[in-house]
Amino acid sequence: MPANARVTLRYGPYESSGVVQHRTFRLQGLQAALTARGHRCILEETRDWNAVELVVNGELVFTCHIKQLEFGGDGKLDPVCREAVAAVENAY
Fold first, then answer.
1. Is residue 66 in a domain?
2. pTM of the full structure
């Protein structure tokens, strides 16, 4: 996969402090990790609760539960972020 891939990052709402809504705090590390590798992230809200999906060239390459991602940070120490970046870079 080229270093400048366009990655669509789909995310759903999740519950925090009794309120369910779309939040990007847990996506910051993932975005930073992808951007550091030269990829361009496009955020897209979905209705699927707790879902995170990475789409490259129309192909779903990675999915996880949003609460598996670390809150904030740069994604360097988050094993789920490393797995997601590897999935993007191994996409066709």
1. yes
2. 0.90
How many angstroms separate the CA atoms of 4 and 13, rounded?
28
* Domain assignment of residue 58, given as a range: 6-89
13 located within any domain = yes
Q: How many domains does the chain have?
A: 1
Burial 36-51 (b: 16+ CB within 10 A, else e): eeebebeeeeeeeeeb
How far is 38 from 63, CA to CA, in rounded Å? Answer: 20
Residue 22 sits in a domain of what CATH number? 3.40.30
pLDDT at 72: 81
Q: Are 23 and 14 in contact (CB under 8 A)?
A: yes
The Cα 71–Cα 74 span in angstroms is 10
Residue 34: in which H helix or E strand, if any? helix 28-36
Task: Average the pLDDT over 68-89 and give the result.
Answer: 91
